[in-house]
Amino acid sequence: MNHLLESNSLVFILLIIAIACGWLLGRFQGQRFSLKRSARNTLPSIDFLLAERNDKALDRLLDIEEISDDVVELYLNLGRIFRDQGQTEKAIQLHQNLFARTDLSFSAQQNVELELATDFLKAGLLDRAERLLLDLLQEGGKSRNSSTQSRKRAACLIVQLYEEGRDWLPILELYNNSKLPELSDLTVRIAQAACEQAQEEFKQGNFLESHKYLKQALKINPLCARANVIFAEVAASQGEPKEAVRCYLKAIKQDPHVMLPILPGMVESFNKINDYQELDKQLAQHWQGHHRVEVLVERVRLLVKQGKQQQAIEILLSELLMHPSNQGFFALVEVVVDEKVVLNTSQLMVVYDILRRIIETEHKYVCRSCGFKANEHYWRCPSCKNWASISAAH
Ligand SMILES: [Zn+2]
């Protein structure tokens, strides 16, 4: 009896919920219907604009009496769809129609301007893009209410525009006139623009100008290792190897990854000042920290040059045992052959061990179709899914 009562009340509750749901659904649909109707009276719908072949539909935006920020956002999304689909002209038309309106809020107007500039960039109309972006940066600087977000985007776009045209001076001019917002990504790029300009001045023999831009690069981004690399190259070309070494070492301290590209220049400058001890120390330190075999090989060459063949062999054997590499092994063979070094039995055992480790790291199979490397054979490549494309690597 009790049980029946419980199940009856459950049915009753479910019934109430069902009625409530039906009522809510009806109300919601009614609302949607009325929204749709009012929208149709004022705005062409997104679906209509997307489907419409006749571009005059886009001009209807001009006839709408009032336009809210939300609606602008909706049309900006539509414009992006056009642009992404490669319909740049249609995107431009849409954005220009919005741009021509005088009743947009300041932030909506800025967003429209940004989208239009992006359209122009995509269409290769660089002059027009440049004008709009400069305008945006100018407005952003003047108005307190300006959306910093659109100013940041405008700054990134205009720097990109100049970068692509290899126009470094306008970037620096914007920076000098405090037109660019402070963004870490942008700071790195502006310092690189200063380095590019310095490099060009250096190529033309304008050493003082070159120095000016390099100093600016380091002021903009104190971590810009490239500036010190160019400082070093300028010094080396001026017959100042000591200064060159100082700048190369500064650059490595800022960013150890510049070691490989500067290695030949740095070794040359060290050779000129005959400071083999310091060079050896630098190379050993870098090898311990980063294990770039080129650096180890350079160190070994340096030792051989100083007549320290046995030390060079010992270093190569012990280091290659821990970090086996083809290039290192090749350097080892080179020293043994060129210097006619005779290896003892325990050294030969180490050579054997190094070679075994190098072979272990090599892959036995490779996919002819995508280059996928494997240690076992597959009938179907796990990467590109082609059948019977795996064959022996050598
Ligand atoms: Zn494959």
How many helices?
19
Report the span from N to C terminus: 84 Å
The bound ligands are: zinc ion
Q: Give the H and E element order.
A: HHHHHHHHHHHHHHHHHHHEEE
Return the average pLDDT rounded to an integer. 84
What is the strand content? Answer: under 5%
Low-confidence stretches: 10-41
Number of strands: 3
Question: Taking Cα atoms only, what radius of gyration do you get, to the nearest Å?
Answer: 34 Å
SSE topology sketch:
Elements: H1 2-42, H2 46-51, H3 56-59, H4 69-84, H5 88-99, H6 106-123, H7 126-142, H8 148-164, H9 168-176, H10 184-203, H11 207-220, H12 225-237, H13 241-254, H14 259-273, H15 276-290, H16 293-305, H17 309-322, H18 326-338, H19 345-361, E1 365-367, E2 373-374, E3 390-392
Antiparallel strand pairs: 1-2, 1-3
Helix pairs in contact: 4-5, 4-6, 5-6, 6-7, 6-8, 7-8, 8-10, 9-10, 10-11, 10-12, 11-12, 12-13, 13-14, 14-15, 15-16, 16-17, 16-18, 17-18, 17-19
The site of zinc ion has 9 residues, from loops.
